[in-house]
Automatic annotation (TrEMBL):
<dbReference type="InterPro" id="IPR009075">
    <property type="entry name" value="AcylCo_DH/oxidase_C"/>
</dbReference>
<dbReference type="InterPro" id="IPR036250">
    <property type="entry name" value="AcylCo_DH-like_C"/>
</dbReference>
<comment type="similarity">
    <text>Belongs to the acyl-CoA dehydrogenase family.</text>
</comment>
<keyword id="KW-0274">FAD</keyword>
<keyword id="KW-0285">Flavoprotein</keyword>
<dbReference type="Pfam" id="PF00441">
    <property type="entry name" value="Acyl-CoA_dh_1"/>
</dbReference>
<keyword id="KW-0560">Oxidoreductase</keyword>
<protein>
    <submittedName>
        <fullName>Acyl-CoA dehydrogenase family protein</fullName>
    </submittedName>
</protein>
<dbReference type="InterPro" id="IPR009100">
    <property type="entry name" value="AcylCoA_DH/oxidase_NM_dom_sf"/>
</dbReference>
<feature type="domain" description="Acyl-CoA dehydrogenase/oxidase C-terminal">
    <location>
        <begin position="192"/>
        <end position="312"/>
    </location>
</feature>
<dbReference type="InterPro" id="IPR037069">
    <property type="entry name" value="AcylCoA_DH/ox_N_sf"/>
</dbReference>
């Protein structure tokens, strides 16, 4: 992501320095757990509740800064539930008027049986913000992890993606309007688009570095047309994904997450990011050859991450259908206004 008008360059530099320092001290492992020392450090810097209201312990920043924070973590291969905690769980509690303390949170939407699958970071959170439908309306409850049945799982890069089960009859929640739950879905989808775009940018950077420094038959790989075409295709797809994601993010911020075309723009961003991942992953591993398939090389940290994230909070197929449905239901001559707002 590129810095938006509200994102301070010094803040972005500080974010990068924090994650770079952590990565240097703590190399990645196959199983990802939330690092309490890093979380504490980020909390001291005001980054854990970056977008929270200052009167309630937050830093009062916006989504422009939050997007840069997420991208910085991705660039350095640091896995931590900043988005789930700040942008989703704590935001939702603030929106329905439930007090937020220092506990680490994630969020999930329960089905009619009181279950939710692939919940990010549930097993390592202190509390889980539950959303469910009862008596014709949505309700929200902030629940201690110990009161839930949680079955641990992981995604493609080892991040916790757990199954959560709750007793719906025993839950007491705060009412939440359908518009708020729609916003939760769009914000969740956009979070993953931001992360995928950051991974694609890092994949491109690694490919450029490798193809310009690696020499074969007396010249850099980048001088071979076939290799150059592979890299240029990655650059094109990454730029398209980034442009559509930034357009959705700008529209969300400008409309207070209630613009009439926001659902379409988020769907386009997720669709473009999902399809860009296919091209970028395939081409990047071809550019790197056998070296790029080893665990020691960093490429897999970003290719597998992009593949994992593009399927969360809605698959590529789901978001493709959302794009199609929105376009098909636009009134005559309404498609342009759907795109431009």
């Amino acid at each position: 992501m590129t810095a938006g008008p509200g994102a301070d360059a010094a803040l972005i530099e500080m974010m990068d320095a924090v994650f770079a320092g952590h990565r240097e001290k703590c190399p990645p492992t196959t199983t990802v757990q939330r690092d309490p020392d890093l979380w504490r450090h980020l909390d001291e810097l005001g980054l854990v509740r970056l977008t929270g209201d200052e009167q309630h312990g937050g830093s009062g920043a916006g989504w422009a800064e939050a997007a840069e924070l997420l991208a910085a973590a991705v660039r350095h291969g640091v896995r931590i539930p900043l988005a789930e905690h700040d942008l989703l769980a704590c935001w939702l509690l603030d929106a329905v008027g439930v007090p937020v303390d220092d506990a680490v949170r994630t969020v999930c939407v329960l089905d009619t049986q009181g279950s939710a699958a692939q919940v990010p970071w549930a097993a390592s959170a202190d509390r889980v913000v539950l959303v469910w439908r009862a008596d014709g309306q949505y309700r929200v409850a902030d629940v201690a992890r110990a009161t839930l049945t949680i079955t641990a799982g992981v995604n493609l890069i080892g991040e916790p993606r757990d199954t959560v089960a709750a007793d719906l009859a025993a839950l007491e929640g705060t009412p939440a309007g359908p518009a708020l739950i729609t916003q939760l879905g769009l914000k969740s989808g956009l979070v993953r688009a931001i992360q995928v775009c950051a991974a694609l940018d890092r994949i491109l950077q690694l490919c450029v570095e490798h193809s310009t420094s690696r020499v074969q038959f007396g010249r850099p790989l980048a001088k071979f047309q076939a290799v150059g075409n592979l890299v240029s295709d990655i650059a094109t797809e990454a730029a398209l994904a980034r442009a559509t994601t930034e357009a959705a993010l700008s529209a969300g911020m400008a409309s207070q997450w209630s613009g009439p075309n926001l659902g379409f723009l988020v769907a386009v961003a997720r669709s473009c990011a999902g399809h860009a991942t296919s091209v970028a992953v395939r081409n990047a591993h071809q550019v790197h050859g056998a070296m790029g398939t080893t665990r020691e090389h960093r490429l897999h940290e970003f290719t597998r991450a992009a593949l994992a994230w593009r399927s969360e909070f809605g698959s590529v197929g789901y978001w493709d259908r959302q794009v199609t449905d929105n376009a098909m239901h636009a009134s005559a001559g309404g498609l342009w206004s759907l795109i431009t707002g």
